[in-house]
Write a structure and sequence with these properties.
The complex is a heterodimer of chains A (584) and B (377).
Chain A lengths: L2 H7 L19 H5 L4 H29 L30 H36 L8 H23 L13 H4 L4 H28 L12 H33 L12 H35 L6 H14 L15 H13 L1 H14 L9 H18 L2 H4 L1 H7 L3 H31 L1 E2 L2 H27 L14 H31 L1 E2 L38 E4 L4 E4 L4 H7 L1
Antiparallel strand pairs in A: 1-2, 3-4
Chain B lengths: L1 H16 L19 H32 L16 H30 L6 E8 L2 E5 L5 E2 L2 E4 L3 E8 L4 E5 L4 E5 L5 E6 L11 E8 L12 E6 L1 H12 L1 H4 L2 H11 L18 H10 L2 E3 L5 E3 L2 H9 L22 H12 L12 H6 L17
Parallel strand pairs in B: 1-5, 4-10
Antiparallel strand pairs in B: 1-2, 2-3, 5-8, 6-7, 6-9, 9-10, 11-12
Helix pairs in contact in B: 2-3, 6-9
The chains are: A mainly alpha (584), B alpha+beta (377).
Chain lengths: 584, 377
Amino acid sequence: MTTTTTTVAHATPHQSRPDQNYLNHSRGFMSWFFTLDHKRIGIMYLVSIMTFFAVGGFFAVALRTELLSSNVLTDAAGNVLRDEALQPMRRDGLISPQTYNQFFTLHGAIMVFLVIIPSIPAALGNFVLPMMLGAKDVAFPRLNLFSFHLYLLGAFMFILTLINGGLDTGWTFYTPYSTTTTTSVVSAVMGAFILGFSSIFTGLNFLVTIHKMRPPGMGYFRMPLFLWGMYATAVIQVLATPVLGITLLMLAVERMTGLGIFDPARGGDPVLFQHFFWFYSHPAVYIMILPGMAVISELISAFSRKHIFGYSFIAISSIAIALFGFFVWGHHMFTSGQSTAMSTIFSAITFSIAIPSAIKMFNWMTTMYKGSIVLKTPMIWALGFMWLFGIGGLTGLPLATMATDVYYHDTYFVVAHFHFVMVGGTLWALFGGLYYWWPKITGKMYEEKLGIWASLVSLVGFNVLFFPQFFLGNMGMPRRYYDYLPEFQTWHRISTIGAYILTVGLGMVAYNLLRSLTSGKKAPANPWGANTLEWHTPSPPPFTNFDYDPVADDPYDMERWKWDPETEQYLHVPASPEAAARAH
Amino acid sequence: MLTHFIQALATTAAAVQSDQVVGEGPDFFPPQASTIAETTDHIYLFIFWVSLVSFCILIGVTAYFVWKYRARDGHQAEWTSPHNNLLEVTWTVIPTIIVVFIFWFGMKGFLDLRQPPGDALNVQVVAQKWSWKFVYPNGAEDVGLHVPVGRPVRLTMTSVDVLHSLSIPAFRVKQDVVPGRYTTLWFDAKDGLLKDGEDVHVLDLFCTEYCGENHSKMLSQVFVHTDEDFARWAAEAANFIGNMSQYEAGRKQFIVSGCNSCHEVTAETKIGPGLLNVSQAIKDGGTIPLADGSTVPANLEYLRESILNANVKIHAGFTNQMPLFQGQLRNDQLGVLTTYILGQADESYRSLGVWGAAEENGGGEGQPAEGSEGSGE
């Protein structure tokens, strides 16, 4: 195997000018805002996404604070006082119902369109993907920059919506409510439309980059699993997002001209909108989770010091999820009046998608077998992911089951389920990945102990926040309710306390990472001993990523890196004779 | 927390097996008040136990590996084969078999939910922002859902504005209510729900599809009656306009038609204008300011048009959120509503007699000049 000698030659990454890297090779606002460097674009995405994460998080905390207490009045015996119209008598809440509705809409819309969908692909993916390929950049650097500028334009439209009367439709924009409400639906819809194109271009760029720019030695089944995940995600971005664009355009046209596509008074069909919307938005769920799974595959292997188990099954299961994901949208509509036959078919296909997710979980578990498991911060997040995504995935079963979904649809059970998947899955993977690549991105080490504590506090906070919402769902508590009957109060109150704990945990994460920029130790080239190509170059990388043309090796051959206590980093070593024999 | 949950579920399961009605029961489920509730809960419990076992295997083994193979001095990762097709096939096939069973149970349960027995009592449901109206075979209308115990009931539902969804947790049923089409839902309130000597049992009913500002206030209640009590209630509810003074009947109609969810009869503004002002303006022969900046004379014609089709003349300071009532209100209902609104400022309307009697006398000053085309459509 010729690659052995080639990589040994670069056992210690070297540079022609060791003090020069992508961060300091040029300066000034313009050198960032109009850069074509995928690393800088990735960082700009990261900063924007985290800013909007804080805004969306603010809305979430405000919602939970309103829900701390029921506003319904009761008599001394605890019976609800009702008026002649059977309505409970209420006192005023902290915020008005209209404000609450706007807050949950903006929380959802910002978190979905501005945070979770772009999070891992656009921020971490942009930084890591070309380096994993040993490439200098993505295939179309200008298109990449254009994607980012579109993202900013889309974000600007959302801010415009906020200023100009807000939005109260829910992030789903269901008709006919969205065509009749007086809030600024059109600007929000245009924002989501533009963000859709940003997402399409990023996906297209990644597809071409992975196809055309793999280095020598990297066949499709030698790619790091992160790339398989990014590839599957990109397929969905390119194929499904245009449908969202068309749907949102139709909605805007309907609102502005009263064309009557969705309005029953003009012969339209409001349920048609749901089909269009979920045709994108269900695959979009996999745009959100596949990159998370992609990150976890890297983390589990690196921190178990083991070759990933069942490589090809994990890789193919990503593609299977991406493909099946297109044929399950109707499971959002079991109670919509959709025909029984269609519901049955959608339910069956939905179950089939549970299998590839289960395969991944079992393979990650088995990867740890006979490893040497290093419990550093990224691994803590990855293990948190297994716990949270395990619960999130399994609670999907009663929602795919038709008879029980009728009961749980639009209750807090659904809210809890998708937060376990979207936050417990995607966000946990994002933070795990962020800690993992932080030394590479910034050249600084974060504080390990604080990192672990922040992850654990967040994990506790998250479970206290969302687990009680399963109980609320079991009790029949509907979602998107500004106020609730007194019987639901206990669990709502616990849930709100969890929200505060989670806020503290995430605050610790932010503090730790930001502080490392000024007072963190200098990061070595390979602090974790992972064998994917981005660890074969200094931290932070030079402007051109590599000073040589890298040749790919087995990305999960952890035995090629040995810990050196003196320099406190992993150093590249020649393959042992047994390992070399195995490779043949 | 989890053990508490399991105990509660076990209690439910035990109650299901002994075929009793679960009373207030465990905290985690509403009582099983319909014939299908038990099946739904069984399916849920099956999924729950399967999930719990899978989750324990996954997390248990992971935790064991993390502890057993933790990095420490003298411990090194050991090379093992990164492939094992037998393992892969095992954890592909077993979950597949399990989900096939879950799918099958879910489908059977769903088919039962979709097919009402032929002899069901039919109740029409009209949903609007933010109230429910239930119309019974004898013409009675009410904001509450009244049903006889032990008899299948089919709801035929539509909405006059946006999407709504009718959910009765204790019955384990839910169905979206869509403008421009009819959707149906059926249930059978379980015999034995009424305890000895009880005439009526009350359950909660929610709107579960987001429908705007007061979505969380679109609640109602289900009243499960004995057969005799249901018959008594239905007869009384059907004839209230014929049994009360116009003003009193109007007061009731104001609630049945859901006017109260957006309008106060005082000067206070809610979602829509306070009706005392309108009433006063009509009494004084004044004008009403419109949203487009013009004014219209305050008179009966304006009031009638604004009830039936509020979209035509929108009061200054408001946006139109009101559903179309044209075709929704019978002549007598519109009549008593008008009397009730006019009576807020002009007390002479409060002494008018029963609606039918007034009409025979040629109609009071407060009656619409011509019949409403409503009921004929």
